[in-house]
Amino acid sequence: MLLSWHHTFLVSLLLLGSSLAYPLEENDQGDDTVKRFDEYQVLRVSPGKLGMKVLSDLEQYHSLGIDFWGEPLGNKSVDICVPPGSIPVVEKLLNDTSSPYEVLIQNVQSLIDREAAENDAVDDRKRRATADGSRVNTADKYLRYGEINDWLQNVANLYPHLAKLITIGASYELRPMKVLKLGKPKAHTPYKPSIWIDAGIHGREWIGPSTVLYIIHQLISEQSRDPMVSFLMDEFDWYFLPVVNPDGYEYSHTRDRLWRKTRSRYYRNSNCIGVDANRNFDFSWGKCADDTLFSRCSSTDPCENTYQGPHAFSEAETKAMGKFIYLRRNLFKLYLSFHSYSQLWLTNWGHTQDSPPDSNDIMSLARYGADMLKKKHGTTFKVGSPASILYSAAGASFDWAKGVAKIKYAYTLELRDTGRFGFILPPNQILPVGEEVWGAVKSIAARIYHEVRDAKDMFYTV
Ligand SMILES: [Zn+2]
């Protein structure tokens, strides 16, 4: 009965599609306009199994323009961003499937405007503070990609004995991809156990790159003052890629604040642009379990936000990063990838509900990290694998890091918040997020050091 209703509903939606106020969702606006989100609402839906299936199907009706935001927590709740013209249809659907919902964000554009105003205000303060405008404060505002690279270059210039900036490739739109390596040289061995941290795989998740910059800043500024930080710089090499997807990041700054994917184009006759870089890594690429409810696992539709790409590592960005890590895979003891939002510490695997054989160690370190994170500002992170607490995701970077590069500890962190601001986290949260994540990162790094030392595995070759 319900299923036949579901079928009828979708057929009627299909017919309705052409009469909706919104044209077929286009990924490319074709001109220089900035996309606006006036009266767009974010709804938190608790849909139940049937409602979830219907919502998942709805995403494929691009004319409705629905965008899944926060990470869907199993069948419990999911945040969806809905254009004003589609709100009546979606509300009817939710009511008809007895799916409770609440409005999380009343008007997305007003949040975007506020965020931009706060970011610009920092600019003004900075200009007043430094006449030459050369000092960039990474903890106050979200930086553009060029500013991030300038800042990284500045670190490398100021601390040549500790830092090295490495260009590992170029994006689809030919932006250079820069990795900053930090660490103190160690006598008798050129190879040290290493830690990899990246962010910005998804353009709109701005808090990730800013958190990477904060950690770099702490390692540099504290290494002469804090014995523990000095120790971590002695014993590890640290590799940071603050923005994996620079084209998407820039596009989210200039044209569409909510852009997630890369900016590659594969289909001449399609307006749909970009690949979900976090579905594009070459491990279980495109392999989703049959019972996966969500198209979010990995999509073959170029118009969807989780489009996996025409083949694994189709994207210049994922390929460059994968190659760089793979060549040094024996060195890496920890892989961290920062995303937002939902406050989750995600463990392997993303693509299956099975656990890796060393899952006890993996979960133990993750729980320790989440505890250390909470200590700073009381922020709570839920710990577990995507398949167990969210939905499956195939071709994600942290599964590749574990499955192919064989890095024992590989985590995805979904940073603040839990939905009040979502992706549009105000700049005044950059500092507290940096502080709490840094607290977790240095603690788990110290614990990994002891594990590596105890394993008497301190000599490395590449
Ligand atoms: Zn993400």
From TrEMBL:
Active site, per annotation: E414 (proton donor/acceptor)
Recorded protein name is Carboxypeptidase B-like
Q: Name one GO cellular component term.
A: extracellular space
Question: According to the UniProt entry, where is the signal peptide?
Answer: 1-21
What is the organism of origin for this protein?
Lingula anatina (Brachiopod)
Q: InterPro entries annotated for this entry? A: CARBOXYPEPT_ZN_1, M14A-like_propep, M14A_act_pep, Peptidase_M14
GO biological process terms, semicolon-separated: proteolysis
Ordered alphabetically, the record's keywords are: Carboxypeptidase, Disulfide bond, Hydrolase, Metal-binding, Metalloprotease, Protease, Signal, Zinc
Required cofactor(s) = Zn(2+)
Question: Which lineage do the record's taxonomy fields give for this organism?
Answer: Eukaryota, Metazoa, Spiralia, Lophotrochozoa, Brachiopoda
Q: Which family does it belong to?
A: Belongs to the peptidase M14 family.
Q: Which domain of life is it from?
A: Eukaryota
Peptidase M14 domain ranges (all copies) = 141-448
Single GO molecular function? zinc ion binding
